[in-house]
Design brief:
alpha+beta; Phospholipase A2
Length: 174
Amino acid sequence: MIYYLFILTIFFLVQRYTESFQIVWDNTVDFDSIADEEFSRSGQVRMPNWFFIFPGTKWCGAGNIAENENDFGEFRDTDKCCRNHDFCPDIIEGHQSKHNLTNPSFFTRLNCDCDEEFHRCLKSVNSHVSTQIGHIYFTALGTQCYRNNYPIVSCKKYSYLPNETSSYSNTTNS
């Protein structure tokens, strides 16, 4: 429970104060150097990864603290899910643009295929830790993914809400 409160506190602080600078995760940083940094000059602040890694894992959190790609923590199966998620090939870093989309958030946004696979993996591990990781990532942090399936060419079916498409075609052959 304390870890949830810690994560939520960090989340709200980050959301409130990261509009003017970007956080860079760096395992070589110590707390003294964080306090000495001038945010306004560099536009970046370096934070240690280990501070935001879920206990008992090396890949679940901001970045990783693994020595190599086969280095896992105590919760190996959950850690493997997080490692695979970290290697998603299609991402939009915080405050960056790609695919004609801009990510205004501090958090990296991933292609929905990667987030869906991460969700399946955590559910298949079916442990207390994998459930906690899933709850933090998908619920508490409120992360968002994106899907590159535009442009919408025509609406195939409307929902009950006015002017909302519930089924669409993104090809000209519908």
